[in-house]
Write a structure and sequence with these properties.
- The structure holds 2 protein chains of 2 kinds.
- Chain A is α+β, with helices and mostly antiparallel strands.
- Chain B contains 8 helices and 15 strands.
- A 6-stranded mixed β-sheet of chain B has the order 1-8-3-4-5-13, sandwiched between helices. In chain B, strands 6-7 form a two-stranded antiparallel sheet.
- In chain B, strand 10 and strand 11 form a beta hairpin.
- The two termini of chain B are 27 Å apart.
- Classes of the chains: A alpha+beta, B alpha/beta.
- Strand 5 of chain A pairs antiparallel with strand 2 of chain B, so a sheet runs across the interface.
């Protein structure tokens, strides 16, 4: 697992800290979706945090109906990862196998290698539970001949942990997806995980 | 597909892109600082990245064509030859510069300047000739035309290069390029990569300048790589300008893979040689052993330990 910081990391981290210190939930630093196409999980319980999903930047032409369909398809993949890797399961939890259901086989191997970041493997054994605070995915789309062929899914996930390790965690970054025989799959990622 | 050692591969498919795609796709590079903050007690930030592209090390032959308007770019003479390796596992990348006048064996066409392979047999044959010299067969061959290269540099707002020595060209750049850090627009970037007559070591120095331009492209876009839609727009632009047998999905994956290259893990070398005369034409007699050493060194990890 590679660990590193970037110039922007402190900005992000500071914003997280400030947001927590003031009790605020202003998400302006996470960026605004370009075109509204929000969807949410139909089965979400009242008060549950659902994923806000939308098209961000679009290169090429894509009919509106196809955009909505795309948002739903990619959101399903992203939600599958978020739930399996971070939010679902019985905590304390040490088994994170299968946390990347929408990833290609090779990407799964690499995500498992990066399991402390790409899942809650680093803290799973020392927490009792996870309370989601924010789920957001914004899609930057490459469309050729009115068909989406590549997507960068910009993901923001925030959750709080309970138990021996109490912290607020922010997972943010990009998932890269293309569509194959098995539907949309994540073939790469650039993800950071910050905890306060 | 994989970069392979000579002689052991049958049926390998060399992909061809007839546009300045290498540079355009190289413009998708992501910054990566190896500096680790010492103030982790406040906030700990970890980051992980990867791209699933098979194989882990991808080899691309980047060709700058001297085709004039109306000419078939895939059957002219390559003016610039850079064999670029990219390790999607580690983020390392390397460029091996090949002097265009290198006198080599061209399969089925005797012995000639290496860039004549493009004229004789198109991208496949040029890829084979370069592969035979270095010992690594490229997975892809990208061919660019001058005009597109200029436009691409302009689109990204120009590039910065560090020029080790002042040089000029009476026709292409009469005022020349000063020594030191320079900001180059589209035309100047192309001129910087093309001029050789005023360079002390001619084609060798020019090849090194081409590598400086590649690095400059990378540096310029580092800050832009995180912009939403940057990669999508870049790949879309490339697709609009190219003729290729790659699917858009393949191209998108390749572009994202290139975005993972770590600027701190890039190594560049130029194959050296002696100057010879063949039928009145000045040629480069490349140091084949050196070329093979570069290939052997970089084949598995896209890193050359020393030039």
């Amino acid at each position: 697992m590679r660990q590193r910081t970037r110039h922007g990391s402190w900005v992000i981290a500071t914003l997280v800290v400030v947001g927590l210190a003031t009790g605020g939930c202003n998400d302006s630093n996470d960026g605004e979706p370009g075109e509204a196409a929000a969807t949410s999980s139909a089965s979400a319980a009242p008060g549950a945090v659902v994923t806000a999903a939308a098209i961000g930047e679009l290169a090429g032409r894509l009919p509106q109906a196809r955009r909505d369909q795309l948002v739903g398809e990619v959101q399903q993949v992203v939600d599958g990862w978020i739930d399996a890797a971070y939010l679902s399961g019985d905590y304390p939890r040490t088994d994170f196998a299968g946390s990347w259901p929408g990833f290609t086989a090779r990407a799964q191997v690499k995500a498992e290698r990066d399991g402390d970041l790409m899942s809650n493997r680093d803290i799973g054994a020392s927490i009792d539970g996870v309370e989601p605070e924010k789920r957001q995915v914004t899609l930057d789309v490459l469309s050729i001949d009115k068909q989406p062929v590549g997507v960068t899914a910009r993901v923001v996930l925030r959750f709080a942990t309970t138990g021996d390790t109490v912290k607020d965690v922010r997972v943010a970054g990009r998932l890269y997806l293309t569509k194959g025989k098995q539907g949309w799959q994540v073939f790469g990622y650039d993800v950071s995980k910050a905890a306060t | 597909m994989n970069g392979r050692v000579n002689g052991g591969v049958k049926g390998r498919l060399v992909r061809t892109l007839t546009v300045g795609a290498v540079l355009a796709l190289a413009a998708l590079l992501v910054p990566d600082s190896a500096v680790k903050s010492t103030e982790v007690e406040l906030v700990k930030v970890n980051r992980a990245e990867t791209v699933d592209v098979s194989p882990d090390v991808v080899w691309i032959l980047a060709v700058g064509s001297d085709a004039r308007p109306g000419e078939d770019m895939t059957h002219t003479r390559g003016d610039a030859l850079q064999l670029v390796g990219m390790n999607t596992e580690t983020g390392a990348a390397t460029a091996i510069g090949i002097p265009r006048d290198s006198w080599v064996s061209i399969p089925g066409h005797g012995t000639n300047k290496i860039n004549a392979a493009l004229y004789f047999g198109g991208p496949q044959l040029l890829g084979q000739a370069v592969g035979n010299l270095v010992g690594i067969q490229p997975d892809y061959v990208f061919i660019s035309r001058f005009e597109f290269f200029e436009d691409m540099i302009g689109d990204i707002g120009g590039i910065d290069v560090v020029n080790p020595i002042a040089f000029a060209d009476d026709f292409i750049k009469p005022k020349g390029f000063k020594k030191g850090r320079l900001h180059l627009g589209g035309y100047d970037a192309l001129a910087f990569a093309r001029i050789r007559h005023d360079l002390i070591r001619g084609d060798f120095d020019r090849s090194a300048n081409q590598q400086r331009v590649l690095r400059g492209v990378q540096s310029t876009v580092r800050a832009k790589a995180d912009q939403p839609g940057f990669i999508e727009r870049g790949v879309f632009s490339v697709i609009q300008h190219l003729h290729t047998d790659l699917s858009p999905v393949e191209l998108y994956r390749l572009g994202q893979a290139m975005a993972q290259v770590n600027p701190g893990k890039i190594t560049n070398c130029v194959v050296q040689g002696s100057i010879g005369d063949m039928g009145g034409a000045s040629v480069v007699l490349p140091y084949v052993d050196q070329a093979r050493r570069y290939g052997d060194d970089a084949r598995k990890d896209a890193t050359i330990k020393r030039c």
